[in-house]
Structures are given as C-alpha cells and as structure tokens.
Design a protein that fits this description.
Blueprint (H helix, E strand, L loop, with lengths): L8 H7 L11 E5 L2 E4 L4 E4 L2 H4 L8 H11 L12 H13 L4 E5 L2 H20 L5 E5 L8 H6 L3 H4 L9 E4 L4 H7 L4 E6 L13 H13 L3 E5 L14 H4 L5 E4 L10 E5 L1 H4 L15 H14 L2 H25 L2 E7 L2 E6 L7 H10 L2 E2 L1 E2 L4 E4 L7 H20 L1
Helix pairs in contact: 3-12, 4-12, 13-15, 14-15
The site of pyridoxal-5'-phosphate has 15 residues, from α5.
Length: about 400
C-alpha cells in the first residue's frame, strides 16, 4: 500500500467543523462485535454505530455482497435502474404492508420523501387546505430542515431562520392531546413506533391504536419512522408488525445497509401515485452498491434465527443490567425493546449519562447515550453471547469506577 498520512485525534479539532465531540479513541478495524483502535486496544461494541451495524463489523455476507458488486458496477443515477435496487425493493415489498419503494441515502432523506409525499397526496386528493403535520415532542426524524422541524426538539431546529410551517407537536402517549389537535386539515402524522433518541419510550397499546383510528377518521396518513426500530432491531422485522397497527408510509434506514448508507421509504401503490415523474429524486438513491449490500443484510436478518436471537439476547442484556444494578444501585429502570435498550440513571446520577459512556470506553466498551440521563445500547443483532458477557463485565467496571469515585 502507498504511504498514508499519520493522523491523531487532535487533527479533528483543526480540520473538522466543530459540530461533533467524538471520543479520543480512533477505531481502525472491526470484526463481529469487537473493534480495535490505532494502538491495537480492543473494544467490545454495544453501540453498533448507533443501531446501524446490525451484523457487527465486516460480516462475511456483507463483504461478499460489497466486493462482488464493486467489481460489477457502482453507480448509474436514476436515469437507469439497476438489478440490486429492483431485487431489494421486491424483497422489502414482499416482507411488508407496502407495494412500492423509494430509495434514499439516509434516514432524514427517507423521512423528507415521506413528508413531501404526504403533502402531495393531500393536495392531489383533498385540496390545499389539508397540509398540517402532527408529530411528537422528543421525537427525532433527522437533520434536514423539514425533518428536524417535524422532530420534537426545538433545540435542534432553532437558530436557522424561518422554519417550514404547518407542523405541530404533542406529547408521545398522550392520546387525549393528540385527539384534540388532529383535524380534517391534518395531512400526516409522523411517529416513531418506539422513540429512540428521545429516550427509548415505547408506545402504549391504546395510544398507538388510537393514533391509527384518528388518522383514519380524519383521512390523515400515518407515517412510521422505523429508521432506528426497523430491520430486526426490536425482535420483529419492523416494529409495526408487533403493534397491530399498519402505517400508510414507513421509512427504514440505519440497519438497512448494515453499515452502508442507504434508506428507503415504503408505501402503498395508491399513495405512491402522488410521486409522479419529476416530483422528487436523488442522485445516489438506490445505487447498485448500497442496494447489493442491503439485500445481503436484509436476507441475513430476516430469518427466524436472527429475529428470535434478538429476543434471547435482550434477556441476557437485561439480566446483566439487573445484576449490576443490584450491586451498585445506579439505574431507576431499563427501557426499550429487543436490542435497543436504555439504562435510565436514577436520581443520584442525573445528567451523567455521558460520564458512564466515557468510563465504559476507558474499560474497552462502546456504549451510547440518549439524552443526559440514559445510557443506550444498540449492539449487533448477532453479537455472540460471550461478547455480551465480556462487555457487561467491562460495563460493571465502569459503573464501579463512577460509583466509587
Ligand atoms: C437516526 C434517525 C434518523 C436520521 O437518520 P440519518 O441517517 O441520520 O439521517 C431519523 N429518524 C430516526 C427515528 C432515527 O433514529
């Protein structure tokens, strides 16, 4: 290999815009649920690249799909279609409520497409008065200006000038407030079937069913943002499948490519009609490389072994957190589902989730946070049980350090 420039974490502060505060550790390679940094220190990965690396690092099926396709064709643009995109779309359609697919490159872009489609659909079918969008406080839908405004954290959308209009928010799981807000002017309701970034909040059965019923009553489209919950994360292929509620539009990203950036918006043929030729598009969306990798990821995850394995591994994780908590009394509860779990810090440790994440990294464990009070975990769906045990032992050491500090 030709000589490469040596880099250190310090260089980040010089050459990268300051919107992130990354760890001091720079990982250079991974295998399964283990990662090695520049100094060859090994880490166990309970973070999964924020719920993306559903098959861990360098899974053989993904490497094969990527390299096979890399030797064939990478990019065409949507002036021509391609075989991997059509195969992946067919598999997504066959496995879900949807009839048709639009491909994008990120979760935000797939949500942007969903919101634009909903507005067009309403205009086509009900006139220009039906343009209101309802979403939920603490929700997260991405960082484009439309999606971040639909997201329920004003801190993320403030300070960029005039916002897209016609968007309002109510509390998640507050059906009464939602019922008071929705009307015949509502064109779409965007919701996560389990709030991820907002703190691993599951919907109550009455709430999610009530939201569906009220959308039907007012002819509003129900958009499920399954960017974080989809592709097996919660133990079913998509979260809607276990809720007994079917959306009109669904978005999926993160785990879809197992680490390759790809996203999709799925909907019915009837609704899709409003995305007529030229109404929306993307240069890279549905590129052969991304679709080939996603097809392999999808085939691997969408099996009873992997999906049932998620439920079994959830139990191991929960038992581990309970054991740590019995010893150190740091969590008030463990929230979430499948392999999207949040250990909520109790009164004594309020605001210190980042300290736990940093302490874990120092012990050789990659974890995440969700806000200031929740340590979040989103590991590979196929993480070996031995790696869970080793990671949990490292997490216990990190917790002990904080408690005994
Ligand atoms: C991560 C996330 C997004 C944004 O995805 P990007 O790929 O970062 O654009 C949108 N919605 C939800 C629910 C997410 O978790």
């Amino acid at each position: 290999m030709s000589e490469q420039m040596q880099v250190t974490r310090e260089l980040f502060n010089d050459v990268m815009v300051p919107n992130y505060a990354p760890s001091n550790i720079i990982p250079v390679r991974g295998a399964g649920s283990r990662v090695w940094d520049q100094n060859d220190n090994e880490l166990i990965d309970f973070a999964g690249g924020i719920a993306v690396n559903c098959l861990g690092h360098c899974h053989p099926a993904l490497i094969k799909a990527l390299t096979d396709q890399a030797n064939k064709i990478w990019h065409l643009s949507n002036v021509m279609t391609n075989e991997p995109a059509l195969r992946l779309a067919k598999k997504l359609v066959d496995a879900t409520f949807a009839d048709q697919v639009y491909f994008a490159n990120s979760g935000a872009e797939s949500n942007e497409a969903a919101l634009k489609l909903a507005r067009r659909w309403a205009l086509d079918n009900h006139g220009s008065d039906k343009d209101q969008i309802i979403a939920f406080n603490q929700g997260f839908h991405g960082r484009t200006f439309f999606t971040v405004t639909v997201g329920g954290q004003a801190a993320y959308s403030d300070g960029f000038g005039p916002k897209p209009g016609g968007i309002s928010h109510v509390d998640y799981n507050d059906l009464e407030a939602f019922a008071a807000l929705i009307s015949d002017k509502t064109c779409a309701v965007m919701i996560e079937p389990l709030q991820g970034e907002g703190g691993l909040v599951s919907p109550t059965n009455d709430f999610i069913k009530g939201v569906r019923e009220l959308c039907d009553k007012h002819n509003a489209l129900l958009i499920f943002d399954e960017v974080q919950t989809g592709v097996g994360r919660l133990g079913s292929l998509y979260a809607y499948m276990e809720l007994g509620v079917t959306p009109d539009i669904m978005t999926t990203a993160k785990a879809l490519g197992g680490g390759f950036p790809i996203a999709a918006m799925l909907t019915t043929k009837e609704i899709a009609k409003s995305l007529k030729i030229g109404t929306h598009g993307s240069t890279y969306g549905g590129n052969p490389l991304g679709c080939a990798v996603a097809e392999a990821a999808f085939d691997t995850v969408n099996t009873p072994e992997v999906l049932n394995g998620v439920i079994a591994k959830e139990a191991i994780f929960r038992a581990g957190f309970d054991a740590i908590n019995a010893k150190y009394n740091v969590f008030s509860e463990v929230r979430g589902k499948g392999l999207l779990l949040g250990a909520v810090l109790n009164e004594q440790y309020q605001g210190r989730a980042r300290d736990f994440m940093v302490a874990a990294a120092a012990e050789g464990l990659m974890a995440l946070v969700a806000g200031a009070n929740i340590v979040r975990f989103a590991p590979s769906l196929v993480i070996p049980d031995a790696d869970i045990a080793e990671g949990m032992a490292r997490f216990e050491k990190a917790v002990a350090k904080i408690v005994n500090a």
